[in-house]
Write a structure and sequence with these properties.
With 350 residues, the protein is an alpha+beta fold. The chain has helices spanning 6-32, 104-132, 138-163, 212-218; strands spanning 43-48, 51-67, 70-73, 79-84, 91-92, 97-101, 166-168, 173-178, 185-186, 193-196, 201-208, 223-227, 234-242, 252-259, 270-287, 297-301, 304-308, 319-321, 331-334, 345-347. 25% of the residues lie in helices and 35% in strands. A six-stranded antiparallel β-barrel has the order 2-11-14-13-12-15. The protein has a four-stranded antiparallel beta sheet with strand order 3-10-8-5, with no helix packed on it. The longest helix is centred in the middle third of the chain and has 29 residues, at 104-132.
Length: 350
């Protein structure tokens, strides 16, 4: 009869006990672990409320400043310039002497004309006396009278030419260009200088045809600003004239503006003209940066992003009028390109 080995039995019992303990331990371990769930991160955004202000519609053009009139100083007689008193940038008054032309030849002409006039005057008196006693005919008197009058006219012309040797300013204004010098030859075909009235400066613009009706309908309501791009100095301006026709080639019409503060500008300056033709005051507005490239935007309601794609009634390049009923809403201005409608968002403090 086979005998059982009690040692082996003990080993078996121990092994089974350890196996059961291991299984039980593993079961307890897995039972204690919870299955993780994924939670999407909340998108951080920054928001702003509409602010009360004004919003306007405007159009911009560029041009150059011009003088209302640029008057050339043209001598009326020819000769050598003996004195020249013209300096660029100086202000001159009407009839102020600007230059002196050699007048010796003109003085000689005056002397000759004066002598001839005296001779004819003497002859006229003698013939008239003779005519009164019948010693000279009426025809002889008429002839000497005409000769006397012609000599007076020649004397007047000679004196006038002598006066022209003093070149005077035709108008009051500022000397823009100095074109001659002492010792040069003055002629009536070449100006000596150019004078302009810097108190009357204007800007001439060529406006596209599509604005023709706008300018004619809103002319009285338009506000105009002329700006120097170099430093931002500006002046208001007013409309002088609007051309009544469209140029067939350029498809533009001429607009002439008068500068209200001409002291800031000079002829030839490059300027920017901004013309405001419509404005709303005390309106709720937002910057265009709130909107996405397609024109839509997001507000935040109860911690969620709300998609908005409503028609904008009034806007310009910088801002827009907030849709009616949304004056107290919070609009996303930073992060609007990263959220979806209904998504939870985290509002960051600035």
């Amino acid at each position: 009869m086979k005998k059982h080995n009690p040692f082996k039995l003990v080993k078996y019992i121990v092994f089974m006990a350890l196996l059961c303990a291991s299984v039980y331990g593993l079961q307890m371990f897995f039972d204690s672990k919870t299955t993780p769930t994924y939670e999407a991160p909340t998108t951080p955004v920054r928001v702003m409320k509409p602010e009360v202000g004004s919003i306007e519609k405007s159009i911009r053009f560029s041009g150059h400043v011009e003088a209302d009139a640029m008057i050339p100083v043209v001598p009326l007689v020819q000769g050598t310039i003996l004195d020249y008193f013209i300096e660029e940038g100086s202000y001159v008054h009407k009839d102020q002497v600007l230059a002196k032309i050699d007048d010796e030849a003109f003085k000689s002409q005056v002397a000759q004309a004066k002598a001839a006039a005296l001779a004819y005057e003497s002859s006229y008196k003698r013939v008239k006396e003779l005519n009164s006693i019948g010693a000279a005919t009426d025809q002889e008197l008429d002839t000497i009278t005409a000769q006397r009058d012609a000599s007076k006219a020649q004397l007047d012309l000679a004196n006038l030419q002598l006066s022209y040797s003093l070149v005077k300013a035709p108008v009051s204004g500022t000397v823009l260009k100095n074109l001659k010098h002492k010792g040069d030859i003055a002629t009536n075909t070449s100006p000596m200088a150019v004078i302009a009235d810097l108190e009357k400066l204007e800007v001439n613009l060529q406006i596209p045809e599509k604005y023709f009706s706008l300018f004619n309908e809103e002319r009285k309501n338009m506000e105009i600003r002329i700006t120097r791009p170099t430093d931002g100095a500006f002046s208001t301006a007013h409309i002088i004239s609007i051309a009544p026709y469209i140029d067939g080639e350029s498809k533009t019409f001429a607009l002439k503006l008068g500068i209200d503060d001409p002291s800031l500008f000079r002829p030839g300056m490059y300027i920017k003209a901004e013309i405001v033709y419509d404005r709303i005051e005390d309106a709720y507005i937002l910057p265009q940066s709130v909107r996405k490239p397609d024109g839509s935007m997001y507000s935040v309601v109860d911690g969620k992003a709300r998609y908005i794609n409503e028609k904008i009634e009034f806007e310009n390049s910088a801002s827009f009028l907030v849709p009616e009923g949304m004056e107290d809403s919070l609009f996303i201005y930073d992060g609007q390109n990263s959220v979806l409608d209904g998504e939870d968002v985290k509002v960051l403090e600035d």
